[in-house]
Design goal:
Blueprint lengths: L2 H10 L4 E6 L6 H13 L4 E4 L9 H11 L5 E3 L13 E7 L5 H17 L3 E9 L7 H6 L9 H13 L4 E5 L10 H8 L6 E4 L5 H10 L3 E4 L1 H5 L3 H10 L7
Parallel strand pairs: 1-2, 1-8, 2-3, 3-4, 4-5, 5-6, 6-7, 7-8
Helix pairs in contact: 2-3, 6-7, 7-8, 8-10
The chain binds SN-glycerol-1-phosphate.
């Protein structure tokens, strides 16, 4: 089954998922082993691999390590730029920055990378990427030269996601940016999730199992956590348990 099919089925069945974000720039080898061990134990659903800047050549090494230690957890590239490609992954979020008005990030880079992706074995998932103001200027906001959607403008977030779905994008990823001080509000998640039928990914500044749970309750289908796990890998188990508690069916 394709990864997208799985995401769609899970959405239909109300099953909530958890992705651990690994930034190859920040990886320390010892810590990576621990993150992988805990992810396996916690039955993490996906690894997202990416960062806004890739300044070292750790990408392939990270993918190889994941494949060895957690062969059953799909690896999804979440690229900050067109150089972050590797055929070793399973899928790629083909991100169009629909919250911004930078033509390069809406369609320009895509035209350049399309021929490579067409030849690649990667599953390509078109994704409407929406930056939401998280209280601090993040690397993505700076690098993309765009303004994020203001944190309280739920209607703008909602109509942007609706337009993305109507354009045929397969996923919506709302991101307050890595290390956001203020994660996306449950009110905004609720507004957006009730306006679209495609899976909704939420990330940026999520640091506690409680916030992860509140987000899935509000309508998020997949929660992404990076920064908090880098600081404390043990959080993987607590966050996974709290997200997956939504999937327990009572007979
Ligand atoms: C960033 O959504 C991801 O693009 C995750 O954010 O690193 O703050 O968890 P954090």
């Amino acid at each position: 089954m394709s990864i997208y099919q799985r995401l769609q089925d899970d959405k239909k069945n109300g099953k909530k998922s958890f992705a651990v974000l690994i930034d190859p720039d920040k990886v320390r080898l010892k810590q990576l082993d621990r993150v992988l061990e805990l992810s396996k134990k916690a039955k993490v659903d996906y690894f997202f691999i990416g960062g806004s800047l890739i300044v070292n050549d750790m990408l392939d090494m990270v993918l190889k390590s994941i494949k060895t230690h957690c062969p059953d957890i799909p690896m999804v590239l979440f690229p900050g730029n067109s150089f972050q490609l590797s055929y070793k992954a399973d899928a790629l979020l083909f991100l169009s920055l629909i919250s911004g008005r930078n033509a390069e990030l809406l369609i320009g880079k895509h035209v350049v990378t399309a021929p490579f992706l067409k030849m690649s074995p990667l599953e390509i998932m078109s994704t409407g990427y929406m930056l939401i103001d998280g209280g601090v200027s993040t690397t993505v906001t700076y690098m993309s030269n765009t303004n994020p959607i203001p944190a309280k403008k739920n209607d703008i977030a909602m109509t942007t996601a609706m337009a993305g779905e109507m354009l045929g994008l397969k996923l919506i990823y709302m991101d307050a940016g890595s290390g956001a001080e203020i994660p996306i509000s449950t009110e905004m998640i609720d507004a957006v999730s009730s306006a679209i039928d495609i899976p909704l990914i939420i990330g940026g500044g999520i640091e506690t199992p409680e916030k992860a749970l509140a987000n899935v309750r509000a309508g998020a289908d997949l929660i992404v956590v990076g920064n908090a796990i880098e600081k404390d890998p043990d959080l993987i188990v607590d966050i996974a348990n709290s997200i997956h508690s939504m999937n327990v069916t009572t007979v």
